[in-house]
């Protein structure tokens, strides 16, 4: 069934915001400071998106009687975990500038590939399992903030979200 999914449009809109920062984050020709500022903008966007995606979208995917869809949810969750590990390394005081720069590039490429896979493979497949009512219900849940990410501050490392996944 072909229909315009509000949920998928909301997910893609967040991907677009994340992509805008990815292109700078993986750019090694700009200054470290500019990339760190970019990371400060990128991180809350990514964490807000991946947490709500897991808790609303992947949860729904795991509950469906479709092994392929279940697998896609676990695969996405695993990619998020790998991104979390890189983020944890990048937030560590022990990392030097060269290591930080390499981690930033790997993180940007990993996330970019993951967003492409979701848009090209996962979301079209997910849409087959959505009817209009379910789509609306999931979209409303997805668009409800999971935590108050406005209070998130990277520059002084006071991460005030209730339970960041890498804590
Ligand atoms: Fe994802
Ligand atoms: Fe996503």
- What's the average pLDDT? 87
**What share of the residues lie within helices?**
over 70%
Q: Give me the CATH architecture, please.
A: Up-down Bundle
Q: Determine the CATH topology.
A: Four Helix Bundle (Hemerythrin (Met), subunit A)
Characterize the main sheet. none
CATH class division: Mainly Alpha
Number of strands: 0
CATH superfamily: nmb1532 protein domain like
Structural class: mainly alpha
Radius of gyration, CA atoms, in whole angstroms = 16 Å
Q: Uncertain regions: pLDDT < 50 for 5+ in a row?
A: 148-167
Q: Give the N-terminus to C-terminus distance in angstroms.
A: 42 Å
The figure for the number of domains is: 1
Count of runs of 4 or more consecutive helical residues: 5
Q: Could you give the order of the helices and strands?
A: HHHHH
Give a list of the ligands: fe (ii) ion
How would you portray this structure in words?
It is a single chain. The protein has 167 residues and is mainly alpha-helical. The protein has one domain (6-146): Four Helix Bundle (Hemerythrin (Met), subunit A), CATH 1.20.120. It has helices at 6-25, 32-63, 67-91, 97-127, 132-143. It is elongated and about 50 Å long. The site of one fe (ii) ion has 6 residues, from helix 1, helix 2 and helix 4.
